[in-house]
User: What shape does this take?
Amino acid sequence: MPPLALAIIGIALVIGLIALATRGGDDPAASQTATDPQIPQVSEADIAAAAQQLGPRDQELVNIGRTGVSIDRAGGARKYVALTFDDGPGPDTPAVLAALKKAGVPATFFVLGGNVQANPDTLRQVVASGNEVGVHTWDHKDLTRLKPAEQKAEIERTAGEILAATGVASRLFRAPYGSVNPQVLKQAENAKLLSVLWDVDTVDWTRPSTDQIVQTAVSQARPGSIILLHDGGGDRAATVAAVPKIIKELRAKGYEFATVGDLVISDPPGSDDMTSESRDTQRY
Ligand code: NI
Assistant: This one.
């Protein structure tokens, strides 16, 4: 099929998904709409097919991952880092977005499908502000403890929810707790997702002070670093306050910022920057 036809099918699918997503549940008028033959019915298979369609940038990202590995940083050839925010979208996400926007910095958000379903407008704001979105599963289960079919569903259902909310087919995946095994990495590869871990952990989920979060991020960052922060999973006031300080201090050291996708495309990870291991098994 020619690319233009694929693009048209893709757009039609997204419009259909948004129409489905915005429909009511128990409202009788809404169920009448549900049987309206003019509204396309989108199946799980349609969503999966749309998520498999790769543009040139997508293909580049997917190619960076090798079978059975995650990346934990970029190559280190450029003085760039990527800020990443996990477990949203939630109540603290707009404040994180505002801080990033004020500083003119893009970031990457690894979102939970359940939170996307509850806060689709917030995810649309994330995307509209020029940020990148990745899959962090539906409800933050340790995927290594699930059966293959359940692993697949956690990933695909979340990718479908992101697509329905924003029209974006995500190409990045981060396993909850950084917990992976060959089967989980295979599922990410099957879904055309690059598995992304981190090399700088601010451990902001343990509720340190803002200054401690800043200190960890700034002292551990090196060229190509992927820095782990959280915009969900609890009160993230300290993280919100840390964001402008991290940006200011890293800029003072000569660093610039990119999304994970742009970072790794512009500065591909070497084999030292990839791992087949779990990052660790703590609560993230
Ligand atoms: Ni998480």
